[in-house]
Specification:
This protein is an alpha+beta fold. Helix content is 19%, strand content 42%. Strands 1-2-3-4-5-6-7-8 form an eight-stranded antiparallel β-barrel. A hairpin with a 2-residue loop joins strand 4 and strand 5.
Length: 175
Amino acid sequence: MLVEPAPRAFRRRHALSAAAVRLLLALVLGLPMVLLARKLSAEEPQTTPIGYWKTVDDHTGKARSIVRIFEVGGELRGRIEKLLDLPAGAAPPKCEDCPGNKKDKPVLGLEFMWGFKHEGVGWSDGSVLDPQEGKVYNANLEVLDGGKRLKLFGYVRVVFKLGRSQTWTRVAAPG
């Protein structure tokens, strides 16, 4: 069975103008893009290291502190907000072996991470200070599990990167 084209008069009355066709195409093709962009931007805060994290002692496996990672001038920094393993009534320890202006400063409130820049799936070119040893290491950050965990890899660069990593857990702001 052959279908004949509609008469010319019918096509004129029911035809869409070129502008209407472009608008319809923009809506049909653009709306999913807008919805996808909104979904991705809603997920962004969960995939950034900015926020509060519970750290764990490498040797004991016990929770050690709550740190806050924040952004200043396009780079990430970290500060120790709360010490979890501090005995009741004990004075917060000082960073006795720390270099420069951090020497003999209280560990509580100490800015121990700085210089992290977003690169690919993580943040790199940062530095991390170990307040117990007073040593500064190169470091990278990577958010895991949709923002629930954060992997910090601290290293020294010899011929290759030699270091260790810690995985922190996201927590609510300390009260």
